[in-house]
Amino acid sequence: MVTTASQTRGLSNGRIVALVLIVVLVVTAAVALVTAMPRQQTPPATSTTESSIMSTSSTISVTSSSSGTSTTITSTSLMTSSTSLTSPSNSVTTTSTSQVNPLCTSSPCAPVIAGWLHTEPGSTGVFDAAGDVVPLAGVDVDGLDFGTGNPASSPDSCGKGWSIPPTSFTNVAAWGFNSVRIPISWENIEPDAPTLAANGTWIHHWNTAYLDELDYVVSSFSKVHVAVMFDFAQVDVSGAFKQAPEKTQGGECEGWGNPTWLYPSITNPTTGQELASAMCSFFQDQSLVGSNAPKPIEAMEAAERMLASRYAGNSTVVGIDMFNEPWFDSSCGSVSYEGGLLTSFYTEMGKNISSANPRLLLIYEDSTPGLMVSSPIISTAPQLQNSMYEFHIYTSDWDTAQPYVQAFLDNARRQGVPVWMGEFDAFEAGCTGTNCELDQNWQADTQALLNYCNSNGINWAYFSYYSLGTDVQTPVLHSAILAVLRGEIPT
User: Which end of the chain is more exposed for a tag (fewer CB within 10 A), N or C?
Assistant: First the structure.
């Protein structure tokens, strides 16, 4: 119906008054509703200017190459909220336009990492494209590091193979975390040794099924606005080492990480000394296969460079952890010598990665307490731009952990780089092995650990998702662990 001008002029004064009263009532109700809405609590160091957040959603289906199963994920787009952030480690206050993930079911929710991250010389913060400090609060989602080139659907002689829990994609976002650390293995990327071409160059035979699985994982986390950092994992060096003392205690029958073709003459069961010697020879770039393959570090550089190149156009993958938990024993040399080996390794590896994608965070790990007598051991930072220092904590309680955490923090500050606690298990609350020794005060101790991290600008990721979102048995309820972690998420 069209209303004419004469009809409009014919409205009575009573009708006009009624319309005005209706408008006033609607506005009053809206103001009351907004006033009554709960506001998200923020830590003392963070002030928040609230603005409206809008999202749109669509449903997509992604299929895992390892299992053939289809996972339905609701993809949401984001609007920004204006936030003022204070980095406790360097007391630099910045105004952020951080995004809030609409998939997060309840506060606190870590700010979404939108786009590439970077570091700045002399600063201990991790910054987004707008130059704002972004705290990393995440979960390790492991499983893709297992096996010797095979998926879980075709297990190896130890019953191992790579896979990932499909529930992790939506759960991590719903729980309020903004990042995942994904352990992967060079063994799974390159289960067959390179071959020498007629022109003298090495031809690498990448595992396309495994790389397809990584694509599936990255795509799935991208849909739920969770950033990915790949970790080149190793435990007991390689799947070539079976029944090693360290892993036999945990119920495993093989290591994982470096390709088995690097170690053609290993006999099993493996001794601890063999593992230490293998680790030492790797970082000294000593080949055990002669001219049948590139030197080990050169070969690993090719794998990490390939992965960096594969995701150079995908800002969901924001970093690469270049080597998981390096360790030595006294047979390799002095602590300063071993630290120098790591500095040299990370410098060259980082340059190779940056040549393929200069926007990636280059994450370098120090030794882990418990694996070595001394920790930390890296006294000189790798000569890299856009780098972040990492440590892991697996100790009995907070009193034992605190001196190590302080030492790692001090080391990062001396080197002028951000720091990341890339693994911890809430003092064995998340232990999935057979010899768990739970800290009876684990809740308070975990809160103390994470309070310390948040107060000092230490980024963190919990290990692992299996003790939060699967049916794997742990000493305490998964929900109890999750409640403690979520209560400490920085916003």
Answer: N
In Å, what is the CA distance from 327 to each residue of 46, 61, 74, 142, 343? 38, 41, 42, 20, 13
For every residue of 231-279, which 3-state class applies, written as one string?
EECCECCECCCECCHHHHCCCCCECECECHHHCCCCCCCCCHHHHHHHH
Instruction: State the Cα–Cα distance between residues 344 and 41, nearest whole angstrom.
Output: 44
Same domain, 225 and 307: yes
pLDDT band of 90, cuts 50, 70, 90:
very low
- 21/150 same-domain check: no
Do residues 182 and 299 both lie within one domain? yes
99 and 173 in a common domain: yes
In terms of domains, do 18 and 63 share one?
no
> Using one digit for the tens of pLDDT, what is the confidence trace for 249-272?
556 789 999 999 999 988 888 888
| Number of domains making up the chain | 2
Q: Do residues 108 and 12 share a domain?
A: no
Owning domain of residue 374: 57-487
Length of the chain: 491
Question: Which residue, chain included where needed, has tokens 């390794």?
Answer: 345
Query: Which residue, 235, 199, 204, 214, is CA-closest to 301?
Result: 204
Whether 397 is in a domain gets the answer yes
Residue 105 counted as domain residue: yes
pTM value is 0.83
Nearest partner of 240 among 266, 275, 210, judged by Cα: 266
Please tell me the predicted confidence (pLDDT) of residue 443.
98
Least confident among 238-247, 273-282, 305-314: 238-247
Residue 29: CA count within 13 A, CB half-sphere? 6
Q: Are residue 442 and residue 344 in the same domain, yes or no?
A: yes
113 with 253, same domain?
A: yes
Place of tokens 């299929």: 63
Rounded to an integer, what distance in angstroms lies between the CA atom of residue 483 and that of residue 464? Answer: 14
> In whole angstroms, what is the distance from residue 363 CA to residue 384 CA?
10
Alpha-carbon distance of 156 to 146, in angstroms, equals 10
Spatial distance between the Cα atoms of 50 and 47, rounded to a whole number of angstroms: 10
